Amino acid sequence: MSELTTLDKLFKDKIFRIPDYQRGYAWQKSQLKDFWEDLVNLPSSRSHYTGLLTLKEMKSEQVKENQNEYWLIDDYSYKMYEVIDGQQRLTTTIILIQSFIDFMREKYPEKEDKDIFVSDTLNLSTIVERFLYRTKPTKNEYRTYKFGYAIDNPSEEFLRYRIFKEPNAGTITETFYTLNLRNANLYFKKQLEELAANEGMDGLLKLFRKLTKNFLFNEFIIKDEFDVFVAFETMNNRGKKLSDLELLKNRLIYLTTLYSSKELDEADRTSMRNDINLAWKEAYHQLGRNEKRPLNDDDFLKAHWIMYFKYSRKRGNDYIKFLLDEQFSPQRIYENTERAVELEDPEEQREDEINEAEDIQESADETALINGSNNERLSSSAIKDYVHSLKASSVHWFNSHYPEFATGMDPKEVKMLDRLNRIGMGYFRPLVMSILKNEAVLEKRLEAFKSIERFIFLVFRLDQVRRTYRDSEFYNAARELDQKKLTIDEIKEKLEYNASYFFNEDGSIDESYFYELLKKKFSKNNQSGYYGWNGLRYFLYEYESSLQDSSRQKKVDWNDLLKTLKDRITIEHIFPQTPDNNYWQQNFRDIDSKDLYYYQGSLGNLLLLSGSINSSLQNDSFQDKKKPKYDLDNNKIRNGYSDGSHSEIEVSAYQDWTPDAIRERGMKLLNFMEKRWNIKFKDEEAKERLLFLDI
Prior knowledge:
single chain
C-alpha cells in the first residue's frame, strides 16, 4: 500500500518503532539546514514531498512483548509499525515538534499545556498526545511514546529523558547518535527563536501548520511475506548514506532468518539476534564515547576485518565487498543455489582488467581466510564468533585512540599509547588493537608498544621510507596474534628484524637515509633545515617529556602542537630567521650571511615553547628572550625562556647564544636520540655531519 499522507494523518492510531537493525539518528547540520529551509520557504498554499516512509506492521506476538504499548493497541485499536526506511526524516519532524513545544512552554511558563493554544481549537496537550505520547489513565501514570527506538537502544532513553523531558532519568548512555539528537533539538530551538523574533507568533503557527499538514510522506506498508531485511539494505535514504557497519548489522540479522529450525530453533534464533544487537550496541557506544570526536564506523570495521579475516593489498571498499558478498553472503546458507554456467565473454578483456583480476587473485593467494573457507557453508557458530570478536574489539579500538578515557588501564600503558598516537600509528592500529585484546601480561604489551614506537620513529621519521613498508606483514601479524598463532615476543622479533635493514654491520644506525633527507631541506632552494623535518615536533616533545619526568610538572601540551599553521608558533628559531637585531649581528659576525640559514635550521637552534608567542618578539636578543616581556601597561605579553617549558628553562642557562652553543645543543639532542630510541650513530663525526654546520 502506498499513498501520500500528512503528518497529522500519519500519526493517527499508529505507534512507530525504529527496529534493532537500524542505525541511530545520523542527520547533522547540513541535513537539518535542508529540512528547515524546505519548510520555511514552502508557501502555505502548496505541499512538499518529504520522501518515502516504508513501514512494516508488527506481528501480534511482537506487539505483546511491548507491554507499555499494548494497552493502546488493545483498548484504542492502535497498530505498531517498524520504520524500515525514512527514520531520519521522521525523527527530525518529531524533534522539531518537541522543540516547538519547548519554545511555547518557555514563552508561557505560568500556564499548563492545556491552556497554551496554537489555534482556536489546538493546544499543546493535544499536540503532545497526537505526536509524542499518550499517558495511561492509571494510578501510576506512565507514558507510551508514539515514536521511539527498540528497547535497550541508548537512543531510546536519550530521546525519552533528554528530548521528551520524561522525569527521573538516572544515568543516560550518550553516543555519537545521541549527540546528533541533542544537536537537532538545539538547532531547531535556535531557528524557532529567530523565526519568532522576525515573524512573531503568526510565523511560528504558520510553520507548525505547514509541517503537520503540507509536508507529505509517501507512506508504503510492506506485506508480512516481503523480505524486510533485503528491503532495508537496498533502499537509499535522503541525507546520509548507511555506513558499512550499519549494513553489516542488518545483513547478519537477516542471515539468522535463513537457517532451518533444525540448525536454529526459535530460542537460538532470538539469542543470536540479541548477541548481534548487544555487539552493535557496544560498538556504537565505544565509537561514540568521545562525543566531540567520534570514531569512524568503517575505519573500525575495516581494522577488525584485517585482524579477524585477512589483509588485501586492494584499496578502497575491498573489505566490505568481502564481508557482504563473500563471508556473510546468503548463498553460503541457502540449501538451493544456482548451477554454475560458463558464459561466453562478449569481447576480449582489456589489459587493465586482466591486471586487476591478477591483483585480486594475488591477494586471495597471499592471505587465505583464517576463519573458514568461502566454499564452506556458513555456520551459525561462525557468525556468533565473529560478532563476539567485534564486540570485544570495539573496546580496545576506542582505548587505542583515547587511552586517557580507558577504564582501569595502567598509567604506563596509557603513556605508551599516548606516544603511539602522537607519532602516528599508521597501519599499526589493527595490531595495537590485537595486542590490547591479548591476554599477555602488562609488561609484554608495554614492550610490544615500545618496539612499535621505535620502529615507526626509525623507519618512517628518520629514514622516511614509503608508508606501506612491510604493512602486509604487520597486518597479518595482527590477525595471527588474535588467532593465537603468534606471540607478542615473536611480533617484537619481527619489528626488530625489519628495522635491522637500516643498521650497519657493526650495529650502528645507517644515518645516510636521514642525511639525504636533511640535505634536501638544507638546500639553497629550501633552507628549512630540521624545521621542515616531519619528525621534529614529536622528537622535541619527547625531549621535553624527558626533562619533565624529573620535575613532574607538565608545561607543554601536545594539542598545542596540532594547531593550524597560522596559529602554530610552538617551535622557535632561537637564532631568528631575520637576525636584524645588533645582538645577533655581533654573535654571528664570523658566519657568511649566505650560510646563516644552516645555523637557523640546525637541530640545536630549534626550541619547543610552552605556548604561542607574538611573532614580533622572535627577533629579540637572546638576553631579552630569556626574560618575560611586558607591554606599556605592565601586562605580560609572553613568558621568557626562564619561566617557559622545561626545554626553554634549559636553554636559558646558556650565557649567550652563539654558533658554538647551537652546535653543543645539537649534539646534546642527538645524544638524547641515541638513548631514547636505543640506537648508536657510527661515531661523533657522523653526528656532526647531521648538524650541517661544517660549512
